Amino acid sequence: MSQIGAWRDRRLYARLTGIDRAGLMWEWLRRDSGYIAWHAGARASTRGPADPGRWGLHFR
Fold first, then answer.
1. Cβ contacts of 7 within 8 Å, gap of 6 or more
2. Distance of alpha carbon 34 from its chain centroid, rounded?
3. Angle at 44 (CA atoms; ends 27, 47), nearest 5 degrees
4. How far apart are CA 32 and CA 15, in angstroms?
5. Are 29 and 54 in contact (CB under 8 A)?
6. CA distances from 44 to 31, 47, 56, 59 (A)
7. pTM above 0.70, yes or no
8. How far apart are CA 7 and CA 5, in angstroms?
9. 20 to 30 A Cα–Cα from 49, which one of 13, 17, 27, 56?
10. How does pLDDT run across 19-45, given as a tens digit for each residue?
């Protein structure tokens, strides 16, 4: 199946049934090209911690 038509494959979404709101937001965020670039830069950064709050991330 082509990359363009792959979004129609129901098997790719099977693990998302029953997912909670936080899980759904993570699935959305992890595909965001801006977040991917930010995360890569934050990991490589040595100038102090990056601010995950920009992306709405929080920890318990």
1. none
2. 10
3. 120
4. 19
5. no
6. 19, 9, 21, 21
7. no
8. 6
9. 27
10. 898 888 888 888 899 988 888 887 766
